[in-house]
Amino acid sequence: xxKQAIFQSKLLPxxxxxxxxxxxxxxxxxxALQAVIQSFLLxxxxxxxxxxxxxxxxxxxxxxxxxxxxxxxxxxxxxAIAVSSLSFALLLAVMxxxxxxxxxxxxxxxxxxxxxxxxxxxxxxIFMLHPxxxxxxxxxxxxxxxxNPLLDGxxxxxxxxxxxxxxxxxxxxxxxxAGLQSIPRSVLEAAAIDGARPMRRFWTVTFPLxxxxxxxxxxxxxxxxxxxxxxxxxxxxxxxxGKSTETxxxxxxxxxLLGGNLGSSAAQSVILMVMVIVLTGIQFRFVxxxxxx
Amino acid sequence: xxEEEGFRRYVAHIILWIGIAIVAFPVYIAxxxxxxxxxxxxxxxxxxxxxxHFFETYYQTIFVGTSGSTREPVxxxxxxxxxxxxxxxxxKIAISIIxxxxxxxxxxxxxxxxxxxxxITLMLPxxxxxxxxxxxxxxxxxxDSYAGLALPLIASATATLLFRQFxxxxxxxxxxxxxxxxxxxxxxxxxxxxxxSRTNMAALFVILFILGWNQYLWPxxxxxxxxxxxIQVGIRKMITTTDALTEWPIVMATAMxxxxxxxxxxxxxxxxxxxxxxxxxx
Lengths: 293, 282
Description:
heterodimer; A: mainly alpha; B: about 280 residues; about 70% helix
């Protein structure tokens, strides 16, 4: 795509792109390059000398069981967050799509959590489910559940998934609602005339027509679970207890900051970069298709 | 229209209200906690109804902070967050709209390579390059500064792509017409293109403001001075001390204050918000 009507100027376009180009090169390409270089270097314990070690940092990572566990854990979190948040949001969107009185009000009351920052989400949820003072924890204990996410890794993971899924409901709801509203009414009416009951109409007509939206949201939710859960994890569990809530991004952060192992942290960053590029690539291919039909 | 029987409609209303309750419950609890006495909360005997400490808690939170040694008034944190969010939103829109203008309305050597250099930045969030970026910001002596908070987060292509897409849909006749009127490229940009882009800019601003206000990892790394903390970082520091010492009413009041501006923006500017969200995700 190119414009036919354009301006002629030798210098001006460069002046116009210069600010963005400068910022992108300085704060994006240079650090990304540094991360790649760093990932091939090994620093001694005192930071006095560095040596080039080829893929040593990467190989070390893959030899480390903790790294594999972090990968598995991240994918598990992504899957659990995406599935729980998407299904709940879809249910709400299907309800809100009906011709109800006050549907605008419903939408407003359901979309605002999008604006709540991840660390605040973490604070809200740890407070409700805090073993000694949480309002909900009180009832869990009354039910005979030995609830202590500060000591029990599985419970901590559950807590992270719940909180992260809660925040993502609004986003998914909004896109599902938009997807539902773009389904032609005539198709649904045709199915109704053929005698399909509402449940059947949903599974045989609405759901398949919604599949592009579902796929798009799945990718967005996975990316969200990879990166935006950092704030939630950091305020709720700091990766603990043990390492039971340490995701890949959290590990990059804590290995670099606490451990001071910059080479390994950089190698992890590079692996993450590759993962994000793959995910984004999938998303773009999908968007291309959506645009063309 | 497909007929909905009355019964199903009731079910829909009920499910939606349950959904709303689930979504609102954590925030309700936070509000209730922010109005109660800390001793009661620490004992695990918090009431589910608002208490009587609203004014004193919020006054202390905004103007004084916690009673710990590293106290910092939350009002000041909010100011830092506000400055950062505005710098990110305005800065990104400003540099993106002019570079998109250059890429769409001019032919010049390296036009496409430059476009791609900008485009690729879409793919990598700041989280995957935090330490190298930290080092650069440190080398430039921008730690603990607003520039250091905002600049690395401005380096992304979403806005550029959005404006490019929009400029492509602007009819060529407008440019011909303003050229006949004797307008040069800057005049055309200022008098014709900018006014046309107003809605797009507003929608983008809403989204970028929310994202900027909610930044966490980056401010956490590069602010060391307490008076440069953003509210998101400040709230985490409030619960670092052992549980018994955490002043929960103040923490929860801070949480409420941290949510207030972005939630207000979403509710008050819902149309622009939805538009911005849908467009930036494309």
